[in-house]
Amino acid sequence: MSVHAWHLGGVVVPYVLIATALWGLSSGAVKDAVRVGSLPARTPLRLGRLRLAVPTVPLAYVFGFGAVAFIYGCALDRNHLGVMIGADPHAVAPGADAFLYGLAAASWLSASLLLGPYRWLRRRTRELLAAPVARDAAEARYRLLAVHLTDLVAHHHPDGRYEWVSASSEALLGYRPEELVGRDPYDLFHPEDVERIRTESHDLLLDGRQRSTLIRYRIRHRDGHYLWFESLTETLRDEGDQLVGLQVMSRDVTERQAIEDELRRRAHHDAMTGLANRALFTLRLDALVERARTGDGAFAVLYLDLDRFKVINDTMGHSVGDDLLVQFADRIRQTTRWRDTVARIGGDEFAVLLEGVGSEAAAVEAAARIERALRVPFDLAGTQRTVAVSIGVALGRPDHTGSGDVLREADLATYEAKGRAEGGPAWAVFSPALREARDRRLRLEADLDRAVDRDELRVAYQPIVSLDTGRIHGVEALLRWAHPELGLLAPDTFISIAEETGRIADLDHWVMAEGLAQVGRWEASLGRSLDLTLAVNCSAYDLQDPQFADRVRTLLDADRSRQLVVEITESLLVDDPQRVADVMTSLSEHGVRFAMDDFGTGYSSLSVIHTLPVHKVKVDRAFVQRMHEDQAAFGMVQTVLGFARTLGARVVAEGIETPEQWADLRDLGCDYGQGYHFARPLSADAMEGLLRDGAPWVIGTAADSA
Asked: Which helix (H) or strand (E) holds 550?
């Protein structure tokens, strides 16, 4: 290959590339690099002691033009090139090819070293030039999206002030974006939420403990009402990871919050009365019990049971019963403090949690206040009805382990109040004695299940005497329980248990069957017909049993039907008068007679009694025993006698204990009587002896075999 070919291919071409790179650096890349900051605007030069700061772009031009001129000059001047390399340009000296090879390699290497930085600087400069354009485009897209979002988008200064707000602020909050920029959002937050927002979101982001937070709070609309917002807040940081701002995406969740609040309210409140339900009541009670265990706080619980609510439900309808519960709840709420929790525990049972009440006197005063308010008649379906309430009081103590302990004690006190005689206080305070009574009651309940199978039930008989002749007209069958450990128990000890556990109908049926069978045994033993009536008390539960009439008829034959007298109380007529009337009419047609027991102490309508097949009326012992000391009691006896005559019924006076009472009742026209003056309740054998031998009716001579 000739020298000319090597010169052109190996040296001139790299020179051209080098010149192109230098020209590009000076004319384009350097200028752009200075503009975007990749190169300094001025380049420092040092010439001996002289220090200069020459503008970078002109310096690049001078350097570039000088280099180009030099390279092109060398490339075009072959002779000069030959002189520069020590060769004769007109002759091919030995080793010239090797020299040209080296020169070509050096030229290509120089071109590569210059082209590499040039390409990198050009690419880097173009990226820096394009970045603002891309950033501006991204920001434009972001702002376009934010403008059309229904959610609120905002940028905040680290101290919270608005820096930029999306256009949706006007639709959501009533403020134009420019009205919010520079404003502190804490001025708009609900006062109750300010501290929570600060501690659960803002402080966590400022301290770097979290990069984002999600929180729900209330914010004020321009017109003054509050909205519920749910906000996702994220930190904005620079390249050095320094916090420069906050970005907040907020959504209006007012409707969702209302739905959640309603669901929570329904989960913790009674739908009918609006009061707290059992779940919320026990939750708050458990909290107070825990505080009381550490000596930090006092409380009391009132447990209220609406008496005879079932009667109103059954006789007047469930809608009237519901109305009574609503009115009942309102009365309680009006008589309690704002800090007290009033709850409907279930059915017709209510409870009041008295926070901060630690003395029995204060709790009893609250119970008395509620009872007075409930004493006022209720308007039920256009009629005025009074209802009674039983209130149990339990005071909080450090030894309570939970709400269940307190409620059980209050419930026990309610039973105590319900069992008190009419006229006494409607409330009772729990005491350890009530717990003992409960334990005894539970034991009796378990033992009563086995009483019939173990043949522990007994019937005592008290004679009913004709006041004119002194002849025994009949007997009243009275149930007794011969408990193997507690001895002979009177009915008031276990009848209420039998009623509550649903066993009373079976017990009454057993007494009726045993009494009728005993009359038959007496007649067989004495060898004659006794013509005795057998009076048996009937529970309200009996007449509510659709099978009661059929069960009674299975015990009777033609003779025994005339002997049986079923005693009912006035209260049964209030419970369900139509059902009572149907049962009485059905059995009366079969020969069974009925007696109205304890007449004058109930609330029955005289017009209802007038339509029923009542054959006897019994004067309550309370009137008989006070008739000599109390003119009103004497007048009541006269009234009952007069009323019985209008019904065509006979009168039986209970509780005759003196000859004077016997004589006065006989003079007033009373037909029959029973009481300790004649005999206490007797065993079957003792009663048989009395029927065989007869006895003088004076106090103390009749054997007390009960």
From this structure: helix 548-553
The DSSP secondary-structure symbol of 217 reads E
* Alpha-carbon span 397 to 645, nearest angstrom: 59
Q: What percent of the chain is predicted at pLDDT more than 90? A: 41
The predicted model gives 491-512 an average pLDDT of 87
Those residues whose C-beta lies under 8 Å from the C-beta of residue 519, and which sit 6 or more positions away, are 475, 530, 532, 534, 560, 563
For residues 338 and 354, the answer to whether their CB atoms sit within 8 Å is no
Q: List b or e across 228-244, with b for residues whose CB sees 16 or more CB atoms inside 10 angstroms.
A: bbbbebebeeeeeeeee
Helix (H/G/I), strand (E/B), else coil: 130: helix
In DSSP notation, 639-689 reads HHHHHHHHHT-EEEE----SHHHHHHHHHTT--EE-STTT---B-HHHHHH
Phi, psi of 386 (to 5 degrees): -95, 145
Q: From CA 506, how far away is CA 680, in angstroms rounded?
A: 26
Structure tokens that stand for 389 in this block: 């309430």
CA distance 449 to 481: 12
Alpha-carbon distance of 412 to 437, in angstroms, equals 9
Q: Which candidate, 26, 15, 1, 158, places its Cα nearest to that of 73?
A: 15
The whole-model pTM stands at 0.50
First-to-last CA distance in the chain?
152
Query: Which residues sit opposite 564 in a β-bridge?
Result: 534
Determine the distance from the C-alpha atom of residue 423 to the mean position of all C-alpha atoms in its chain, rounded to a whole number: 37
pLDDT band per the 50, 70, 90 thresholds, residue 213: very high
In 10 A of CB 629, how many CB atoms? 8
Between CA 492 and CA 466 the distance in angstroms is: 28
Q: What is the rounded CA–CA span in Å between residue 438 and residue 420?
A: 16
- Neighbour tally for 226: CB within 10 Å: 16
CA atoms of 68 and 65, how far apart (whole Å) = 5
- Distance between CA atoms of residues 158 and 156, nearest Å: 6
Q: How far is residue 503 CA from its own chain's centroid?
A: 35
Residue 520 near residue 527, CB atoms below 8 Å: no
Between 278-293 and 403-418, two packed helices, what is the crossing angle to 10 degrees?
Answer: 110
For Cα atoms 160, 163, 167, give the angle at the middle one, nearest 5 degrees.
115
Measuring CA to CA, how many Å separate 225 from each of 179, 218, 231, 250? 18, 10, 19, 17
Alpha helices in 181-230 (DSSP H): 194-197, 203-206
Element spanning 481, H or E: strand 472-483
What is the spatial distance between Cα 215 and Cα 202, in angstroms, rounded to a whole number? 10
List, for residues 138-159, the tens digit of each pLDDT value.
555 556 555 556 789 999 999 9
**CB distance 595 to 613 below 8 Å:** no
Structure tokens at 285: 């009670």
Amino acid symbol at 416: E
CB contact set of 398 (below 8 Å; sequence gap of 6+): 292, 293, 295
- Say which amino acid occupies 699: I
